[in-house]
Amino acid sequence: MPETALPLHVGCASGFSGDRTDGAAPLVAELIRLGGGYLIFETLAERTLALAQLAKNANPQQGYEPLLDELVSPVLRDCLTHGIRMVSNFGAANPHAAARRIEAIAREQGLRLPRIAVITGDALDDPELIASLCARVTPALAPTEVVSATVYLGAGEIAEALRAGADIVVAGRVADPALTLGPALAHFGWAMDDWEKLGRATMAGHMLECGTQVTGGYFAVPGLKDVPGLDHTGFPLMTMHEDGSFEISKPPATGGRVDVAIGTEQLLYEVHDPAAYLTPDVVADISHATVAQTGPDRISVNGVTGHPRPDTLKVNVCYRGGWLAEAEISYAGVQAQARAQLAGEIVRKRIGQAMPVRVDLIGVMSILADDAGVMQGERTAATAHHPASAGDVRLRVAGSHPDRAVAERVLREVTALYCCGPAGGGGVRTHMRQRLNMVSTLVERNEIKAGWYMMENRQ
Amino acid sequence: MTEHLTTVALYRLAHGRSGDKGDTSNLSLIAWRADLYDLLEQAVTADRVAEWFAARAPSRVTRYALPQLHAMNFVLENVLDGGVNDALNLDAHGKSLSFHLLAMPITVTRDVAATLPDIHPSAA
């Protein structure tokens, strides 16, 4: 039943897989004080799902968010007791197993069995469709190399499951803002073509979906943009009214800050054309949006609109890439930069044309450089023999090759610098991993069959 | 340079953050004050940003103006060395790129420069 008179409260306790896991408790306490609401966790970056699929291939009971227990356990009792409903994409490649695990946690804690809904249809596993996707994205891609192909679903199924009484909705790949739009649709009962309201709730979800990035994370520059209490930053809380207007705040007695500068940065984060923020449910438009301070640690975002949803849905195809080899060694003190540079030249010569190699001098220039080494060359030529050249430098060599044995040479050549390289090289560390590459494409809506089921009907 | 002009780093006029999708980076640039927006819009053009990131060889730089936020959004295509798929860069997401943009030198009048925020000495 839509409760049109009451505002909607949504707290977001995670912004990616690997985020802090202590964000939920203060949000739940605040949601209880406010009389109820929704707790969402966003845990799926573009590649997270492919990693989860590999985990599921190895063990059919795995493939959901590895930190699920740590996210859910501390707050499950309070959420079930006070009617705070959870919505998350922490199901990753195996939402059914995640739902089973939450049922087990409830049993372990002596709680009633929660009504858990599982969203289906995001994982594309029909061989014909996979082959067709491969042909579309790159002719060189063999379907056997595909690890996962997943479509970004919208908020419709989440809203249906909530209306049917789910305490918890477990999804895999849904558009991140759908975690917020779903509860808004269920709460306010909007029509699915009320583009302005859908646009507003989508941008509310956009503000929430990176967790503390809207409450002071990813912002601080000491002395210029200071943020208090980043060791205990509050995760964001969103309050929305029936017209889709909304405010962002954070729980009391937490660190961080909510202000116009931080909110504006997050509003534009990962946005390309501000007039066309594409999602499965609506094309949101922030080209006339404004951000205003409405109280201490509280902002509103106004002027968001929306346009009809796209006819197509986005699919991420992840496939096995080559091997990435990375190795490091340090030089410090007299002529450290020159010694590190010489070490890099030695490794380059020995690897030759076997594979593309990148050399970084951490402490001189590393991440700002380009793979081709143009900026690195300019910087080192200008500073190498300068008396003030860097005195504490870490050489990093990275190489990539389809054949693991070839990529291994990066690790061996850097390790061999201990004895064969310039004077005083120490602290070698090496790392090898298989790459998961990703390409995106579009599918027609009628190629996709999204749905949901209640766990209690699948026992 | 005439006497009444001086050069400041862009971070004194604006702040911003980097985001990525595939091999494309977006860099927001938000004026510290509404009255600085016109200056920012004149000084930081798409061409100037393309030139500033020339070593990264962006295939295209698009600028979206958001005057009501006194902000601009720059979209730099093919600037991440292939993105997470292909780059050998430690920072394949380009998280650091906004702070490279904020180091860009901007010519302003000395009168304007006197009003701009800077790194607070106590934190230096």
SS-based class of chain B: alpha+beta
What characterizes the major β-sheet of chain B?
A: 5 strands, antiparallel
Overall helicity of chain A: 25-40%
Helix content of chain B: 10-25%
Number of strand segments of chain B: 7
Strand count of chain A: 18
Overall, the morphology of chain B is elongated
SSE class of chain A: alpha+beta
Oligomer: heterodimer
> Biggest interface and its residues per chain?
A-B, 51 and 43 residues
Order of helices and strands of chain A: EHEHHEHEHEHEHHEEHEEEEEEHEHEHEE
Number of helical segments of chain B? 5
**What's the N-to-C terminus distance of chain A?**
27 Å
Rg of chain A from C-alpha positions?
A: 25 Å
3D architecture notes:
The complex is a heterodimer of chains A (459) and B (124). Chain A folds into two domains: 8-310, no CATH class; 320-440, Alpha-Beta Plaits, CATH 3.30.70. Chain A is globular, with a radius of gyration of 25 Å. In chain A, α3 packs across α4. Chain A is 32% helix and 25% strand. Chain A is built from twelve helices and 18 strands. Chain B is an alpha+beta fold. Chain B is built from five helices and seven strands, in the order ββββααββααβα. In chain B, β3 and β4 (24-31) form a beta hairpin. The model of chain B has no long low-confidence stretch (mean pLDDT 92). Chains A and B meet through α9, β15, β16 and β17 of A and β3, β4, β5, β6 and α3 of B.
